[in-house]
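Deliverable D2.4 — example input (structure tokens):
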């Protein structure tokens, strides 16, 4: 039998080669154990904290419920009293009515957004919402509409913004083909935002978002969903998150808290009403058709929450907030001394709202490589992960970092910038000389 003229691997190789030519090829890497971590999402450094590890091991030793895995989905044999008890504890901690554990934030979002909207409903989402929400929306039966990032009212929108504000989108729904269904409350509108955005580190204007939704949809058919993945653990009292910090527990329909960032472990929970929880148990495929978390992971989540509830993380948070300020001031001083063109090196002039500080550069890969070679783990984030033209090095601070660590990293960044100036100057001189020589010919 003759082989096909073109194998599937050939197609993949071509696509990968194209991505590599565009300097967009993704590869798996291993952490350098001796490097200073300025990359991971472990904001409070809980994943390696000695007290956390000791308490976790005690949980595993002092229980008769220990087993490596749950060995089934929660609807079959994977449900446990530990899982239900932990859900109740987390629900109480965040001031919610009910909650449902998921194996990851990705599965929580895909499960929630794929089944919650009904036919004829809408999902209005921030243009920078996480990929997991996009995947959930694709599986749903709702129509989806983006709005400009963190823009609530028209006057918030930059003149270059391609999308309208949240208010613009909601007004459009009230005037569109299904306007009567939206106005009467027969069509639901789900509004999807994040508490903190993982690539830019900015905080959502959540109170204004909620007020806008309530004003435009007074029938109560506007349902705000907040992904608190990057705000869990460090924002609000004892790290309860942005919704709790703003006192919006009764005005936000659902929250997704994940445990793989500041909590230092893994997993997630959807906080919602008891009826919504029951609905998700019946319709969220990412819960129904997967093996539930085993005792080791449930114990890890419990250990991290116990640490927060006792106030043990307060000192860590204080150090983290101090480092955010120090790092930003050092980066600003680099900009003031060298005045680099924005396409080469730029940071936001306003103080950071989170431990995430993006350093924008069209040479993000080269800058990250330079820092890595000097013992600092930072990662370049490039298109298509972020919009084209916004490549950056994502600097992520942690409670275990020191002022000395931050100073060393900023010194490495400044050295790169100085070397880049020299290289660009030599390239420019060579280009002029070549042009001059050609013109003489």
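Example output (designed residues):
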């Amino acid at each position: 039998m003759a082989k096909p003229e073109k194998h599937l691997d050939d197609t993949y190789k071509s696509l990968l080669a194209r991505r590599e030519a565009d300097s967009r090829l993704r590869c798996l890497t291993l952490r350098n154990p001796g490097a200073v971590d300025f990359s991971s999402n472990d904001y409070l450094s809980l994943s390696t904290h000695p007290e956390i590890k000791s308490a976790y091991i005690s949980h595993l030793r002092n229980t008769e419920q220990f087993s490596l895995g749950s060995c089934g989905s929660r609807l079959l044999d994977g449900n446990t009293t530990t899982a239900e008890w932990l859900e109740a504890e987390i629900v109480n901690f965040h001031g919610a009515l009910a909650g449902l554990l998921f194996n990851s934030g990705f599965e929580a979002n895909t499960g929630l957004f794929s089944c919650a909207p009904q036919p004829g409903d809408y999902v209005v989402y921030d243009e920078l919402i996480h990929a997991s929400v996009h995947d959930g929306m694709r599986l749903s039966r709702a129509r989806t509409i983006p709005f400009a990032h963190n823009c609530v009212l028209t006057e918030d929108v930059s003149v270059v913004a391609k999308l309208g504000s949240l208010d613009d989108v909601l007004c459009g729904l009230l005037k569109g083909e299904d306007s009567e269904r939206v106005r009467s409350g027969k069509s639901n509108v789900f509004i999807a935002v994040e508490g903190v955005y993982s690539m830019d580190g900015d905080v959502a204007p959540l109170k204004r978002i909620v007020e806008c939704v309530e004003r435009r949809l007074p029938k109560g058919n506007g349902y705000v969903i907040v992904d608190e993945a990057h705000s869990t653990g460090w924002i609000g009292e004892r790290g309860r998150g942005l919704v709790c910090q703003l006192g919006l527990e009764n005005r936000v329909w659902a929250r997704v808290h994940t445990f793989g960032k500041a909590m230092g472990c893994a997993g997630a929970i959807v906080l919602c009403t008891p009826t919504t929880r029951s609905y998700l148990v019946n319709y969220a495929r990412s819960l129904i058709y997967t093996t539930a978390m085993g005792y080791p992971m449930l114990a890890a989540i419990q250990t991290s929450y116990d640490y927060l509830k006792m106030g043990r993380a307060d000192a860590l948070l204080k150090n983290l907030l101090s480092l955010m300020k120090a790092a930003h001031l050092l980066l600003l001083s680099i900009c003031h001394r060298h005045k680099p063109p924005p396409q080469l090196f730029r940071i936001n002039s306003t103080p950071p709202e989170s431990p995430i500080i993006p350093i924008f550069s069209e040479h993000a890969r080269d800058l990250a490589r330079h820092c890595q070679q000097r013992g600092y783990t930072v990662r370049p984030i490039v298109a298509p992960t972020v919009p084209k033209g916004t490549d950056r090095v994502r600097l992520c601070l942690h409670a275990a970092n020191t002022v000395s660590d931050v100073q060393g990293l900023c010194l490495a960044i400044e050295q790169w910038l100085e070397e880049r100036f020299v290289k660009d100057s030599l390239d420019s001189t060579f280009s002029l000389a070549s042009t001059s020589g050609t013109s003489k010919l």
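The two ends are 61 Å apart (CA to CA).
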